[in-house]
Amino acid sequence: MSGTTDIVRLAHATRKRGGDPPVSEVSGVILVDNIAYEKQVLIHYRDATGEWRDAPARYDSAPPWGSPERWVFSGILYPADYPEPARFAVRYLVAGREYWDNNGRHDYLLDPEGIVFGDAQLFGVDRLQRIVEFVGWRYHMDVIRLEESMPIFGRGHISRYKVTIGRSMGPGRYAHARCVGLAVRGADVSVLSYTACESIPPVELVSP
Predict the structure, then answer these.
(1) Where are the domains of the chain?
(2) What letter would DSSP give residue 104?
(3) What are the residue boundaries of the CBM21 domain, all occurrences included (predicted)?
C-alpha cells in the first residue's frame, strides 16, 4: 500500500452518533484527479470486529474544467458505544492503476464525535485553524482562548487543549461561554470534555 498522493486525497471526514437505534456513522468528502471517466473510489476501513472492508464512495460534483472531482461517502457504521477510533484509508482505482491516501502510511483515525482533515502533513502549521473549524462545526461557536495541556501518550502522540468557546456578540463580547477539552492526534480533533469554565476568560461576557 503506497502513501498519500495528491491524485486522491481526503478532504474531511466526520463521525457522528445518531439514528434509531443509535449508531456511530462515518461520512466524508474525497477529492480525486479526473484521470479517466471509468473509476472507483473506495473507503478501505476496519469494522468493529477488526475485519477490513471496502465501501464505495459516490460521485458528487466537479468544476467546469473537470478536476478535481468531489466524491462523498457515508454509511460506515459502528455500534453507538464503540470507543475505538474508526481506522480507514482512501483507495482510488482508475486507468488500470491504484492510488491511495492513507495519511502517509498511518491511516486515518477518527474518534467518536470527531472530525479529521486530509492535510495531515500541514497540520502542525494549521492546528489552531483546525481547532477553530472544529468548534464552529461542532458547537457553532467561536474560540475565545486556547490553552495547551500535557500530551497523552498511547495510540500515537495526542495533544490536549483546553479551549474557551462562546458565541460572539461583538468585539471582545461573548455569550454562552464554556470550556471544552479537545484531543488532537495528527489531523483528528475530538472532544474529551465539555463543561463550565473554572475561570472566566479576560473578555466581557454578556447575556444572550
Answers:
(1) 8-116, 119-205
(2) T
(3) 2-111
Q: What DSSP designation does 37 have?
A: S
Q: What is the mean pLDDT of the chain?
A: 79
CA distance 179 to 161: 10
Question: Residue 172 has which C-alpha cell?
Answer: 471582545
Residue 43: name the closest of 7, 94, 8 by CA: 8
Tell me which of 3.10.50.40, 2.40.37.20, 1.20.1250.20, 2.60.40.2440 is the CATH number of domain 8-116.
2.60.40.2440
User: For residue range 115-148, what is the model confidence (pLDDT) as tens digits?
Assistant: 777 754 443 435 666 777 778 777 888 888 777 7
- Alpha carbon 23 to its chain centroid, in Å, reads 18
Q: Residue written as cell 486556547? A: 146
Cell numbers describing residue 74: 457515508
For the question of whether the overall pTM of this predicted structure is more than 0.85, the answer is no
Find the distance separating the first CA and the last CA of the chain, reported in whole Å: 52
CA distances from 97 to 2, 55, 68, 69 (A): 12, 18, 17, 17
Contact 116, 108 (CB under 8 A): yes
Which residues fall within 8 angstroms of residue 105, CB to CB, at 6 or more apart?
A: 1, 3
